[in-house]
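Quick one - inputs below.
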Amino acid sequence: MNVETNDFHTTICGRGVCRMIEFAVLPTALQAALVVMLVLVEAIGLYVGYGLLEERIAPSVLDAIANSS
Amino acid sequence: MELLGLSPELIVLFVSFGFMVGVFFGFFGMGGSFLVTPALLILGYPAPVAIGSSMAFVFGTAVIATLKHHDVGSVDYKLGALMFVGIVAGIEAGKLLVFGLEAIGRAELVVGVAYVLLLGAIGIVFTRNALKQDADGGGETQADDIPEIAKKIKSYNIPPMVTLTDGSKASMWTISGVGGGVGVVSGFLGVGGGFIRMPAIYYLIGVPLAAAVGTSLFGALMSGAVGAFSYGLSGVIDIGVVTALLVGSALGARIGSASTAYVDEADVTIYFGIMLLMASTAVAFGELANWLEMPIFDTVSFVLLIGSSLFVTVIILYYGAVSVREQAALADGTPQVDD
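Output:
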């Protein structure tokens, strides 16, 4: 473990703004990789989810805009 | 009550801001990430947290944008992969700079000033180009065109040379230089760097424009992943902020990219340029608030940044709605009066 990095981490979190996923038993590198994986899963989920939503409601939204005065 | 470690007000703020950033990203192909770090700085997040969270947000947004460009086959994955080493080295250098400045208590100030200059410069370029386009009556660039400067750079065969997906050759030195240079900016400012990488890929490596946009987004994906991992090692990513921003930006990006089918970019580019100039002013006010210890400047700064982003988002949506109505009226054969 990098002492300097942990000191910095403590300083930042001490200001009450750090909310990275904390798995104390996991190595720092694995925690960082988990954060990247989580963002990746979120992004793909949002892409697919909003894609399905777009397919379902986009035509009616466009119709509503076209027919509004 | 808190969700994702954020109060309901902050969640609404980040989702809404993410939506606006997503609209810009979807519509202009850039303009997202370089508003997020300043916003977090203005809200009082320390520079490493603002930059680290912004890098994670860049990664998520770039994944979404790359998936869209992948569908139309405009991503040169080989070139993106070749830039990887330069990107990693550049981001590490940028991050070391941020942490070095933080250690001497100057990170917020230096990053803030860099943003004032960067946003101001890009804002001037956009506004000037928009005014010039108005005066010239426009002028389209063909997707397969390669600029003269790129042809000249390509004529210098400095080994090792690599063959790109389109069959052309480029020096590994140019590719690594572009990756490394943009990586430093990404790591230092927490941005995807598309506003530099895309022109660099087009002008320096000589990739056709359509592929340059897609490949630049793939580069942003790698920058974001490497940057998020690197800052994640130091535990400075606020996953609640990133998630709230992504929820808004994923929706905004879809609406922004759909709007390109209805809105002429030239009509709104000048507003985007003005918004960047206002964002630059907003960050300057934020710095003044710290320097003069006058919290009122923080409020001015925040209102300027959010207000200008909201204004341009409304302009894009308004032009889009007008265009949808006009097209529907034309399809119905109803005469339409321009306003």
